[in-house]
């Protein structure tokens, strides 16, 4: 019998030991016995089984889809589910694009004076009722959404008063979080947080400068994280995003960054996940005024990738890796902008799809009228179009990408643009395996 390694298995050979990682079920296996029939995978993509000496092992490898017969070689390991029609994803900007920080790499207009007010509560409540979905996911975004805490509290209360259950999240710079406001957010059913910390004090304050002399951005973020650590809320989940480039290590010393993390977050707290993101080489440019700097945000040179790998290796051994969770989750890297039931709503009640291209005309797909009815326009079809092709069916990244890693890139190119994870799958596999090894 001939058995093959299917395309969803990543193989790594090190010190004459074979490590197989299965992207279908997140299992991994080490093969070091040179007499084992599977050891022939060292320099081949298939094996021949002649005897039953290792029958139990081989049957397990077949059962867990590490090995497949020739007839099943081209099977898909993950069905493309795209998006659920049972869930409404609302992303609200209660304070518009206004913010109390002035981050170097930010692309938003922080002079935005628009705000969601009491009348928005009724309109958006009617929208939720009119959409009539089984589930509601609500996220507050900005700018800095906590500049309009009054709306956040009122709208969440309105939903709960109408017996509308929802999962609540907020993307915040964290500088406005204290114990009182954490309590208010929790009472508003906001239990998922994304907060950004970009390094030790000097580095963070350079990249994420405060608009006020009375606010130290670094102190604000670290104090917020410590407030959450010390809270009794066990069902809160915090993703700590850290934007890194080669300066994060070369100029400001990687050990300083690690010291900040370890002095702020306990390693054994399951509520916290760390998400490092490689960004370009910033000095003083601000994206709102400099198109060249805007391109720099998405640029990841070899240096940036090396920094990211060093950081991910550290996280895999010491903390929960948000990147690993996304990589191994069905649709983890499938962008919300491609979901027809995901609505980004600004105070002018226009509906957008992407939070990165807020002011791009192609991003406006409709508006919410005074009765809470979603009035769509022709742009919507561009965002929800399925750009996947026949090659997606046998792609190792298909499970997490679902053919929709970046709808904006697909629209601009008028074709499917594959996510970077496809090209970096071997490095990413090592990170995933190291993370899961902690639990074995």
From TrEMBL:
UniProt-listed InterPro entries: 4Fe4S-binding_SPASM_dom, Aldolase_TIM, rSAM, rSAM_sf
Domain Radical SAM core, first and last residues per copy: 82-318
SUPFAM superfamilies given in the database record: Radical SAM enzymes
GO molecular-function terms, A-Z: 4 iron, 4 sulfur cluster binding; metal ion binding; oxidoreductase activity
EC numbers on record: 1.8.98.-
Name of protein: Regulator of arylsulfatase activity
Annotated CDD domains: Radical_SAM
Upper classification of the organism: Bacteria, Pseudomonadati, Pseudomonadota, Gammaproteobacteria, Pasteurellales
Record key words, sorted: 4Fe-4S, Iron, Iron-sulfur, Metal-binding, Oxidoreductase, S-adenosyl-L-methionine
Pfam families: Radical_SAM (PF04055)
């Amino acid at each position: 019998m001939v058995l093959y390694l299917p395309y969803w298995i990543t193989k790594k050979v090190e010190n004459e030991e074979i490590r197989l990682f299965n992207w279908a079920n997140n299992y991994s296996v080490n093969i070091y016995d040179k007499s084992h029939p599977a050891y022939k995978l060292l320099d081949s993509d298939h094996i021949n089984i002649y005897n039953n000496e290792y029958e139990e092992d081989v049957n397990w490898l077949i059962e867990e889809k590490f090995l497949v017969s020739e007839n099943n070689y081209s099977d898909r390991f993950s069905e493309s589910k795209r998006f659920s029609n049972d869930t409404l994803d609302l992303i609200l900007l209660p304070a518009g694009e206004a913010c109390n920080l002035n981050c170097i790499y930010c692309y938003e207009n922080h002079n935005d004076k628009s705000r969601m007010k009491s009348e928005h509560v009724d309109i958006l409540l009617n929208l939720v009722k009119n959409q009539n979905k089984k589930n509601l996911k609500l996220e507050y975004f900005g700018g800095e959404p906590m500049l309009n805490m009054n709306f956040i509290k009122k709208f969440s209360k309105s939903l709960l008063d109408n017996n509308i259950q929802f999962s609540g999240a907020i993307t915040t710079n964290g500088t406005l979080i204290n114990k009182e406001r954490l309590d208010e957010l929790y009472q508003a059913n906001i239990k998922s947080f994304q907060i950004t910390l970009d390094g030790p004090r000097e580095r963070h304050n350079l990249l994420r400068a405060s608009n006020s002399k009375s606010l130290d951005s670094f102190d604000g973020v670290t104090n917020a994280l410590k407030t959450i650590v010390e809270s009794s809320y066990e069902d809160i989940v915090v993703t700590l995003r850290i934007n890194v480039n080669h300066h994060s290590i070369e100029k400001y010393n990687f050990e300083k960054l690690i010291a900040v993390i370890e002095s702020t977050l306990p390693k054994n707290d399951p509520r916290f996940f760390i998400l490092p993101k490689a960004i370009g080489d910033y000095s003083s440019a601000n994206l709102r005024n400099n198109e060249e700097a805007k391109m720099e945000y998405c640029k990841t040179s070899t240096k940036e990738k090396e920094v990211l790998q060093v950081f991910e290796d550290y996280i895999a051994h010491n903390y929960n890796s948000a990147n690993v969770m996304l990589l191994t989750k069905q649709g983890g890297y499938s962008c919300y902008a491609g979901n027809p039931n995901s609505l980004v709503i600004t105070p002018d009640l226009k509906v957008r799809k992407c939070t990165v291209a807020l002011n791009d005309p192609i991003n406006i797909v409709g508006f919410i009228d005074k009765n809470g009815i979603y009035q769509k326009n022709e742009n919507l079809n561009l965002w929800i179009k399925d750009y996947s092709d026949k090659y997606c069916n046998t792609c190792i990244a298909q499970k997490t990408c679902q053919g929709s890693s970046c709808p904006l890139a697909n629209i601009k190119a008028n074709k499917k643009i594959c996510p970077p994870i496809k090209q970096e799958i071997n490095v990413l596999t090592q990170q995933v395996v190291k993370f899961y090894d902690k639990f074995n």
